[in-house]
Structure formats: structure tokens, C-alpha cells
Write a structure and sequence with these properties.
Number of strands: 0
Helix content: 55-70%
Order of helices and strands: HHHHHHHH
Radius of gyration: 17 Å
Organism: Chlamydomonas reinhardtii (Chlamydomonas smithii)
Distance between the termini: 29 Å
Protein name: PLAC8 family protein
Largest sheet: none
Number of helices: 8
Shape: globular
């Protein structure tokens, strides 16, 4: 079994400490921040969200789980990132933690949510994505999860509170 060798340089140290996908996530978040995308209010997308930011109570079991069980909420959050980015849940977790540790968490989330919106043609703007990442965590987590349940046909175990117009199916792993 071969082991990767890292050079005794600054780049080697960074590569040893931070996985390549997390380095890319931080670079993307940094680029979002320095280009001031957080003030870009130009809307794109043509489709309305099935469950908006303030429609938390559309799925009461999910809303309660996110509000009162932080561990379950974090699991749901990083599983959502897995669906949104196509990366594994573990990679999504590391990317989010590394970006957050250098104060770029909201920008990282804005990049991920922006790509998610583009994938499904959902209405929104980089400014809205950034504000969601900064200020509306639990509400946005409910909205994203409900939208993923509709768009991907996934079901969160024990929290399938959506009616027939919501989630269908019982997939719990990414379709990708």
C-alpha cells in the first residue's frame, strides 16, 4: 500500500493538512467574497422554490428536529451538501468546516446554494444566498431539505412530514 509523499514546502504542508477538495471550497468562497458577490442582487432562475425560506412549518417534524436537535440538524445539513455538490457527505463536512475555520462559512454556503439553484433553475441571487448563510440558518436548512426532498425524491428517515405534493420515494443516498 503506497503512501503519498508531501514535499517539505509550504504547499506540501497545506496539502498534508487540508484535503484538495477543501482547498477548492475555500478558494471558491474566497473568490465569492473578494468579488463582492454578496452584494450582487441580480436574480436568476425562473422556477419558484417549492418551499421558501419562511415555509419552515411545511414539514413540522423536520422543523422541530432542526430546531431542537443540533446533531440531527448538522447531519441533515451535510447530507444536503452531498446532494447539492455531488461530493460525499464526509467531503462536504470537511469543506464546510475548513471554510468556516477561516471565516468563509457563509460565502462557502452561498457558493453551494448558488450552484444548487442553478442546477434546478430556482429563483434567487448571490446576495440572498449569502444572507441565508449568515442569518437564517435553521429556516434555510428546512427550505433546502424540503426542496431536495421534492427535487431529488429523497426522504429523511423519520422526518417525512411533507404531503403528497412533497417528497416521494424513500431514497436516502444521492442519485449521483
Amino acid at each position: 500500500m503506497g503512501h503519498e509523499k508531501y514535499p517539505d514546502t509550504q504547499e506540501g504542508c497545506v496539502d498534508f493538512m487540508i484535503p484538495k477538495p477543501a482547498q477548492k471550497a475555500v478558494k471558491d468562497a474566497y473568490q465569492f467574497a473578494i468579488t463582492l458577490q454578496c452584494i450582487n442582487a441580480a436574480e436568476d432562475g425562473s422556477k419558484s422554490w417549492d418551499h421558501g425560506i419562511f415555509d419552515c412549518m411545511d414539514n413540522i417534524p423536520l422543523c422541530l428536529a432542526i430546531m431542537f436537535c443540533n446533531g440531527w440538524g448538522l447531519c441533515i445539513s451535510y447530507r444536503n451538501m452531498q446532494y447539492m455538490t455531488g461530493d460525499s457527505c464526509e467531503v462536504a463536512f470537511v469543506n464546510g468546516m475548513v471554510a468556516g475555520s477561516v471565516c468563509l462559512g457563509p460565502c462557502h454556503y452561498a457558493v453551494v446554494r448558488g450552484n444548487f439553484r442553478k442546477k434546478y433553475g430556482l429563483k434567487g441571487s448571490p446576495c440572498q444566498d449569502c444572507m441565508c448563510g449568515c442569518c437564517l440558518g435553521p429556516c434555510v436548512l428546512c427550505s433546502d431539505t424540503n426542496q431536495l426532498m421534492v427535487s431529488e425524491g429523497i426522504a429523511v428517515p423519520f422526518l417525512n412530514g411533507l404531503n403528497a405534493s412533497g417528497a416521494g420515494g424513500t431514497k436516502v443516498s444521492p442519485a449521483k
